[in-house]
Specification:
The protein is of the alpha/beta class. The protein has one domain: Aldolase class I (TIM Barrel, Alpha-Beta Barrel), CATH 3.20.20.70. It is built from 14 helices and eight strands. The protein is globular, with a radius of gyration of 19 Å.
């Protein structure tokens, strides 16, 4: 069965980290995005690729391992974080994994993502699991706090045990074309992360003015040394879209061609059902290849998505859907 072919899904692959490069303004200013071509390309995606039966189950399991299981609410409590972490450790019911033929495999989510103040709770709840804790920082979600305070948030999160930091950019730098300031700011964030934590850069694409600016901001973030580029905070009016994702993936591909460094990608916000997740998986596979289906280079920022992935796997096994309360988040 295709569901048994999960070896690459479950392997831990260590990519050589992106060291960044000098800011190349000629490259940034020379960027061009054909919006109508982007829209046409995305429109063909669901029509050209259909994953069925055993292969679909394998892709669903792979999607589970790529989730950054997230809670970023004002009413987050230690108890809520502990429940989320329990689900992160066992995202799919053991009896279902047995029936899928992968009961002996260790299947977890990619990471748990929380606010800096909840990092310690998550680290304690995940102790012994090797699941990394990711923390948002730098004035999430708006990025409008003073720079020293934003840097201090990164330091606090790492001190509390975060191994991944999701930073937000100052959108004003992009909107005004101040690429030097964006580059310098992100370089400082990357320096603070150092070897202690990987850095994901949130572009907040719903706040940017055009697809060209999305492409340019992606390039500058990679030049500054980011490990991942991420679409959204999940708090904008428009979050992850396939159009924006395609533009960002093309920037990753161009950066790879020029530097030979692989940058990860994380769509976040509004990805709630398995069908959506599989559309992003198909886009990753077609644009960047199979390596970008693994969680060292691909993450999905989500919470409710996991419930639907589990329900779809249950349907594959039994032929009918389980009630959502049979698959609680924790």
């Amino acid at each position: 069965m295709a569901t048994l072919n999960l070896q690459k899904t479950l392997e831990t692959i260590h990519q050589q980290r992106n060291p960044g490069m000098e800011l190349d303004l000629d490259w940034v200013m020379g960027a061009h995005v054909n919006k109508s071509a982007v829209e046409r390309r995305v429109e063909t995606l669901p029509k050209r690729r259909s994953i069925k039966k055993e292969w679909q189950a394998a892709w669903l399991l792979r999607a589970v391992t790529c989730i950054d299981l997230t809670t970023l609410s004002g009413d987050d409590t230690p108890g809520r974080v502990r429940r989320l972490c329990a689900k992160a450790r066992q995202p799919v019911r053991p009896d279902m994994l047995e029936r899928l033929g992968v009961g002996g495999e260790r299947i977890t989510v990619g990471a748990v993502c929380v606010y800096p103040n909840r990092v310690h709770d998550a680290v304690e709840a995940l102790r012994g699991s090797d699941i990394p804790v990711a923390s948002v920082a730098t004035g999430f979600p708006a990025g409008q706090t003073p720079l020293p305070q934003r840097i201090q948030e990164i330091e606090q999160a790492i001190e509390s045990g975060a191994r991944e930091i999701d930073v937000v950019i100052s959108r004003s730098h992009v909107l005004t074309g101040d690429w030097h300031s964006l580059y310098a700011e992100l370089q400082q964030f990357r320096a603070v992360c150092g070897n202690a934590a990987h850095m994901k850069t949130i572009l907040a694409t719903g706040d940017l003015g055009s697809l060209k600016q999305v492409y340019q901001a992606s390039l500058v973030a990679m030049m500054a040394g980011t490990d991942f580029i991420k679409t959204s905070t999940g708090k904008e009016s428009v979050n992850a879209t396939l159009e924006v994702s395609l533009v960002m993936l093309r920037a990753i591909r161009e950066y790879l061609e020029r530097t030979n460094y692989k940058i990860g990608f994380k769509p976040a916000g509004g990805i709630n059902i398995a069908k959506q997740a599989m559309a992003w998986q198909a886009l990753m596979k077609e644009e960047l290849g199979d390596e970008w289906l693994m969680n060292d280079l691909f993450r999905i920022g989500a919470s409710s998505l996991l419930t639907d992935l589990e329900r779809q796997l249950y349907h594959f096994i039994t032929g009918h859907y389980a009630a959502k309360h049979h698959m609680p988040m924790g």
